[in-house]
From TrEMBL:
PROSITE patterns: CARBAMOYLTRANSFERASE. Its EC number is 2.1.3.2. Reversibly catalyzes the transfer of the carbamoyl group from carbamoyl phosphate (CP) to the N(epsilon) atom of ornithine (ORN) to produce L-citrulline. Belongs to the aspartate/ornithine carbamoyltransferase superfamily. One of its GO terms (molecular function) is amino acid binding. Gene3D superfamilies: Aspartate/ornithine carbamoyltransferase. GO terms for biological process: 'de novo' UMP biosynthetic process; amino acid metabolic process. The keyword Transferase applies. Residues 146-288 form the Aspartate/ornithine carbamoyltransferase Asp/Orn-binding domain. Residues 2-138 form the Aspartate/ornithine carbamoyltransferase carbamoyl-P binding domain. This is Aspartate carbamoyltransferase catalytic subunit. It comes from the Bacteria.
Amino acid sequence: MRSLLSNRDITVDEIYEIFDLAAFYLKNGIKSDLAGKVIFSLFFESSTRTETSFSLAASKLGCLVEKVNVETVALKKGEHLVDFFASLNALLPNAFVVRHSQSGILHLLEKYTDCCIVNAGDGTNEHPTQGLIDAFTILLLKEKIEGLNVLVCGDIIRSRVAHSTIPILQRLGATVAISGPLSFMPLIQVEEVVYHSNFSAAAKSADVIIMLRTQTERTGQKVLAGTTAPFRLDENVLKDLGRDVLIMHPGPVHRNCEISNAVLEDSRNAILTQVRNSQFVRAAVLNFLIKS
């Protein structure tokens, strides 16, 4: 059974297949297409949107969702993570939904499971379903992705959202640029991605602006407000943006840090639309993987 550890695990045709199913669920409601299937949900890092939307999507699909409390599991007694997953696998689930702080760990765990694993975020590596949600939201509101100019601004180097969203938008034909403090940028130039040091100027020509949260829990040091201030989406930047620009953010939003209150109240803000779409895209992903 297939896993989704990276958006590179699926083809462009399969991405659109998932989008078609997500659009069907959005219009008609999520159907009990996976009645009786068992999903193990394991979040080794805190989560609100991702964990809740996955559980909601799986429940509406008719799955039995078992949330494993990782604070009380045998790992606290010294059990190896591999043995822990092998034990859960012996209970014959149909899928694991896993978030973990260690980048790339799910590629190892996949070898010890017989069912699919859905990556709900691994360290600073990837968050594939969020990338799919972002792309689906753009497609829904812009009616296309190919040819769009997308500007991603913020903590690129530590954002697993950026590492999933940027490649998928490129594969679907968008031109992607990045902006943010140099200390937030990858050390190696991202292929076919242009860096803009002047965020406000770059924003003027963007069709879509995706702001990212500063990953304060991963920086290892306090981030000075003066470092990020020139890259904040606020009233001064907002007034120069096109009427049709799409403003997005995967959440949680740090109000008046990377994005201001005025922007959150602007009609071009699609952040809650991203949240709404998350259950439909994640339901489509689970259906696609388990039935593959």
